[in-house]
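Quick one: structure for this chain?
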Amino acid sequence: MSRMNRTQKAAGSVQDRAREAAAKLKPAAEQVKPLARSTQEAAQRGLHAGRAWAAPRVERTGHMLQDSVAPKVADMLSSAARRIEPEKARSRRWWTLPGILVLVAAGASAAAAALRKRSTQRAAEPAAGADSGEADSGEAAGAAGEVKASANTDAAGAARKS
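Got it. Here's what it folds into:
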């Protein structure tokens, strides 16, 4: 006998034994099928009942956590964030408004000094012109005439009103 024939015979005999065992187990499997179906249905009913029991309790626990624990956790997180946050850099704009005010005050004082200087020069010019006898005395006389004319018009206006 060749080697191939022995292997084929051995495989054939194993297959035959498996077929015989399956034929013997078929009636037992047919008897177990209804029992397995009822067990599956019972397990599904038990699972449904367990889920129906657990769902409201889980929801209530969630609400309790949300109302009691969550605010505490939120407070802890916000306080931790405040401790972690670095200090803000100081603003360098504090000098802007006082600096502008100082510049405006300096400009106003410079303008006032310039006006005072101009008015003292004008007051000094007619006196200097009268002493030296220059031609500017005509201008001073014209300015004096204007002052007299405005005084006359004011008096005339007051007389008309009454």
